[in-house]
Amino acid sequence: MLTDIRISVRDGVRKLCARYPDTYWRDLDAQSAYPQAFVEALTEAGYLAALIPTEFGGLGLGVGDASVVLEEVSRSGGNPAAVHAQMYTMGTLLRHGSLEQKSEYLPRIARGELRLQAFAVTEPTAGSDTTSIRTTATKRGSTYVINGQKVFISRVKQSDLMILLARTTPQSEVKRRSEGLSAFLIDLRRTDGALAVKPMRMMMNHHTNELFFDDLVIPESALIGEEGRGFQYILDGMNAERILIAAECIGDSRYFLDKATAYAKTRSVFGRPIGQNQGIQFPIARAYANTESADLMRWRAADLFDAGAPCGPEANMAKLLAADASWESANTAMQTFGGFAFTADYDIERKFRETRLYQVAPISTNLILAYLGEHVLGLPRSY
Ligand SMILES: Cc1cc2nc3c(=O)[nH]c(=O)nc-3n(C[C@H](O)[C@H](O)[C@H](O)COP(=O)(O)OP(=O)(O)OC[C@H]3O[C@@H](n4cnc5c(N)ncnc54)[C@H](O)[C@@H]3O)c2cc1C
Fold this sequence. Notes:
The chain is α+β, with helices and mostly antiparallel strands.
């Protein structure tokens, strides 16, 4: 629910976003350009350090409070994908990083001198089956040597730091497939030609890449937490990620509903506003109801998370329901705007492309349903 802090974050971010209207995002979309000025402004205002504890120079807020930042970016017509990883990767460093790592990086991230916007897990052959990743980190003296390939790794060229998941013990030598994977904090400024970054052209303005590691040598101090426990650390961060992404979807959904409602009131065809026709009005009303109900689950998950209580089912349901609501609102807005929905000038098609992603990434709808079916309802495992 909306507390005083959340209202103040909402109002602050809303004011900042008003300086970056639809035209700003539309132009970036046309040029496939990163929203550099916007990211700098959000960082300068402190919002991207929302989850960094105050002793390291951040705002020390909870995940629920931080989710408001991303919701407002979506709701303003912007794309929070440009900045969200700094929030959802933060937990891995905060919970499992050493004091040295936190002291070295967190204050500089909070001041905006460094960006932690890249998170490298997905691989072309493993896909959703993360424990089958093949990228290896081999211990050599006081270093690790990284070899392998990643795909769909976003914002690598816009980030200074990247969290990497790699296998440190072969799958054949561990009891459980989830063991033997380790998390590393990679300094992208020191990759000395051993990391090739190949941009991928995507259907929306999303700075995503293929990565090729060829004997990248990193210091052993880059290891986060204990060797072999990386998968667990990444899983630990998943609930926060689900809640933050749910908030982005709620923001998108409200953007579409605001636009569709306004257009349905003013666009007049056959001598009356199109919103007077129930064929137009009811889908908007239904999408609104689904958005509000998804938002309740988002707040329930966020409040449990911030109270330190288990929230796996709620966080997953929040992401599922919010992604479905934003997709429903996107389709409804497309229908409401008719032909104009397809023109870049109305921004509906741009946001439609952006919000479609949440059915697939960072976690696909099917895998959330599998989690609910198998882990919450106790149905037989499919994988
Ligand atoms: C724009 C974009 C940005 C991304 N950014 C990042 C990033 O920064 N870092 C990163 O690590 N990854 C990133 N990803 C990757 C993203 O997390 C994956 O695309 C996603 O997890 C799905 O994996 P996949 O694409 O390999 O699909 P696959 O695993 O090949 O799955 C394909 C389809 O099959 C379904 N499926 C697979 N197995 C099952 C099953 N057992 N039961 C039912 N259905 C199943 C899936 O749900 C999906 O719909 C990004 C992806 C995109 C598109």
